Amino acid sequence: MRNSKIRQALAELKLVLDREAREIRSRNLSRLAEFVLRKDELAAACEEMIADVAFGPQSTIVLRELSAVQEKAKRNAADLLAVKQGFVDARLRLEALLKSESRTGLYSPAGGEIRSAAPSALRRDV
User: Which of 24, 29, 51, 124 has the most crowded CB, counting CB atoms within 10 A?
Assistant: First the structure.
């Protein structure tokens, strides 16, 4: 009886993780917050039930399902890290472009580099 409740909670947790993975792949990052509370609730429920249960013959099935949930969560975490790194890379590239765009190739009579105040990469009127 208890194992079936655990398996039901794990199945629901897998569905939530699958929906989260679809949102990550679609880059609908604003929707990810919807999943956080539900994942926490389901994980806490599973932990509580698992701590209370003495596994019998179905313990192998429950452990297999726990492993599947863990793998899904790991994949989602890795995908989120990749998205984060993409944002970091894009920011660094934009900063490099901004820095290179401000260079004019001109120098003052004293030898100092003359930089453009408004790089064309950031101006809409160019």
Answer: 24
Q: How confident is the model at residue 97 (pLDDT cuts 50, 70, 90)?
A: confident
One-letter amino acid of 9: A
All structural domains of the chain with their residue ranges: 2-78
Give the pLDDT mean for 52-62.
65
Distance CA 70, CA 43 (A): 11
Closest alpha carbon to 37 in 10, 16, 7: 16
Instruction: Look at the chain and count its residues.
Output: 126
pLDDT computed for residue 58 by the predictor: 64
Q: How far is CA 30 from the centre of its chain?
A: 11
Which residue from 54, 53, 59, 50 is spatially nearest to 9, judged by alpha carbons?
A: 50
